[in-house]
Write a structure and sequence with these properties.
Blueprint: H1 3-20, H2 26-38, H3 40-50, H4 52-62, H5 67-79, H6 89-114, E1 134-140, E2 146-150, E3 155-160, E4 163-169, E5 172-175, E6 187-193, E7 197-202, E8 208-211, E9 215-221, E10 228-239, E11 248-252, E12 255-259, E13 263-268, E14 274-281, E15 284-288, E16 291-295, E17 299-304, E18 309-313, H7 316-319, E19 326-333, H8 334-345, E20 348-350, E21 359-365, H9 370-379, E22 383-388, E23 391-396
Length: 398
Amino acid sequence: MKDQQVEKASQIASLVVKYMQDNLSPQEQAELDTWLQEDSENYLLMEEMVDDNKLGKSLSELQSYDHDAAFQRLNERISNTTPVIRKKSFKARYEAAAALLVLTAGAYWLYSEKNTAPPAITQQTDLDSILPGGKKAILTLSDGTTIELNNQHQGIIAKDGDNIIEQSQPGRLNYSAVKRGHDTATAEHTLTVPRRGEYSIALGDGTVVWLNASSTLRFPVPFREEERRVKLIGEGYFQVANNPSRPFVVEVDSVEVRALGTEFNITAYPEDKKLGAALVQGLISISHKDKEHLLKPGNIAEINQHGKLRIKQADIEELTAWKNGEFIFHNTPFFHLMNQFARWYDIEVSYPEGIPPINFTGGLQRADGIYHVIHLLELTGEVRFTIEGRKVMVYPAK
């Protein structure tokens, strides 16, 4: 291991130990924050560093370790590990994991000799009943019949007129394309995804829509001849089948997003107090207040609560992470990331002393439990939490 890597690992370990003792100076806290924000993996590694159970086990094992051999095993472990989010995390992961080894060796003396303990944070037992979301939704047919959907459904789900609805894979509905005559009636179906849910649907024209938690998609079955029009509440990712003669239109509040064949993400949750349409590829137009606005790939059109529209560069990785089973945040306001957690874990978030004016950078898997999320947020040293059932109260750290 190179000298500079050892020095970096030792420095990070020293900062983490001081964090555990609640003894960081403002400058040291800033240095630790900088390291945490270098890569989302660093948050995960720091959590491992301060986990009581893992730390205790590591301390007992490391007393008899040959440090050179330990570093070699650590290097082999990292070499066989694929970073969760970005390849550039390899270096930070190596340094942080090395820091963990140094930390556990040093922390054994600090905590056994001085008989101290890490600062108290929210305990996992407080959050055992709060589970992450999964594949679930409710399909409402034209006659009002409702069908609860989950991973257990396979094969044909329902028939509505000439339309066949089936589930060929977990979490995905498929509508059979039906040739439509002029006398064929068009029905309306609704796919509702509750809090703690997500689902996807392949419409009759071949368009695929992924719906995030607390979202609703209304769509005609079959589509009309002149256009393909759906209505969205919440958040959806659209992979539109190409058909130049029949534009695909998404209605969101008073806004229309029109496409031919393209991919885009729309977010329109009332609690977020803004609407966003981000273009991944292709071309879309946004109709707002009788004006048309064209978007290029990589751009997002945002409309705030006052109805003002602004087009800017989009963070596509962050905006579409949910579709890939991740949370990714790049300098994201705390209020917005907590809204995402509230929908996914079905929790009620409140701020008795006001919303902390902080931004967050990091990454998580949506399959992670809420304890993992709360723990990482508390590691920033900016916030603390009180849990009562599904009610989560957020306070500034003191």
